[in-house]
Amino acid sequence: MLEVSGITQIFGGVTALENVSFSVVKGDITGVIGPNGAGKTTLFNIITGIYTQTEGKVTLEGRDVSGLPPEKLAPLGMVRTFQNIELFGGMTVLENVMVGMHTKSSSGLLSCSLKMPWAMKEESRIREGALRWLEFTGITDLVDVVAGNLPFGKGRLLEIARAMAVEPRIILMDEPAAGLNSQETLVLARLIRSIRDLGITVVLVEHDMELVMDICDRIVVLNLGRKLAEGTPREIQDNHEVIAAYLGDE
Amino acid sequence: MKKELLKFLLFAVLVLAAPYALSGGYIMNVLVFVGINTMLAVALNLLLGYAGQISLGHAGFFGLGAYLSGILTTTAGWNPWLVMPLAAALVGIMAFMIGFPILKLKGHYLAMATLGLGIIIYIVFNETIDYTGGPSGLSGIPSLSAGSITFDSDVKNYYLIWSFTLVVCLLAINLANSRIGRALRAIHDSEVAARVLGVNARLLKVQIFALSAMISALAGSLYAHTMTFISPASFGFNFSVELLTMVVIGGLGSIYGSFLGAALLTLLPEFLRSAQDYDIIIYGGLLMVMVMFMPGGLARGVPDLVRKLVKAMGGNRHA
Question: Is A120 inside any structural domain?
């Protein structure tokens, strides 16, 4: 599904990532973990086209997507969420999700301003689709709330609903559980599983070990910009190098 | 949807009925300017209020429309109705090409770049004396006519300008409530998130910049034909700032707000005649007060104020 090979990223003189390679299996939930500063978010930013890597290649379903900007990746079926949720704060919850349908609609400036029949038809299709994703994430009751006024946990769900509206084949989540209480984390875990059950591949960067061990099929461990280990949750839990990286060497 | 249409119809009826309630050539003439300025404020609002991209050069696009119409209908003797869309298209293409490099800039840098663009255009008007007449202006621009009607009186001009303004407002409202309008607001709130969802932010910003410039050029053409005389002074930096003030005071991201802002700032100088050159200070002061106490502009501030007043009065009655 997603192939990351030999990614190196150098910022000024600092090497943030060094020759990182791994692959994500279609339909899996893959976790990327590692201590602070391991380069997880940098890796995500490279995969999703926000940074361009110094070296290395990203392949999505056999297609080289290295260096493609995010707006070109969405139509190819890749979407992401952000660690510090990036909502459209001035827009309602429904409108936020409707923006997610952007690549699934095509009316241009002219047909939108003239309210052409096909543009109106598309508009109601967008609205229906957005409502469906709000239902999927369980926040239908918030449709008309301005996103900027949402509590953090709900904002997180909205961001996921909005990303799902793109109808992705792979979704990358940057620390989805950060800032959530235990109840909200449970809801999130259930939601991530139901996304996977739709046949969508999930990759997440996460610090909440309980969540990662619980829902991930495979885990990639980064430390100091390098891949330290890769395997099933059980293998990772028993890996001495991983334990050393987290707890320090004896 | 229905509510939006009703609001617009009410607005249109008020606008079209105004000449029956008000009389006198002077007030009609001022209201013609309100119409032109509304068109310009709506154009700038699409860019600034929706897409969140500043322009301090819109007076330049307005001037380009005016001069293209002025020159081509006098010196070249072309049909004004033909020149009007041509001028808008030319200005649109120009803005599209300039937009690609300059809309990469953000915030203050974009403000500086558009400011520079406006100043360059202004200098061109002043210096290409052979075509524009330079600082002394260009006169003898023909009035528009349709069939047997020639738009040469204030009331006729009022209806001419406001027909265009109403159409521009309606199209802008439609656009704002569409997928394009949402994508623009998304870019405004978080460009990176919009891009991740597949919104081609760079292209859309340039498109809306070009559309905004085209509407401004159209307003310029209409201005040239109603005034029949134009000079560079109307298209300088001051006017760009004035347009910006209209949009901010009226309310960013509100089409009716743009009308309110344009109306206020066009009518205000008429009341401030005695203040002479100090009017710019009053503008500045007004802008500061508005931003501090009505950050949503007149479009949101006035209904809020009315609600508060009604509440306060209701409270007094009970007390």
Answer: yes
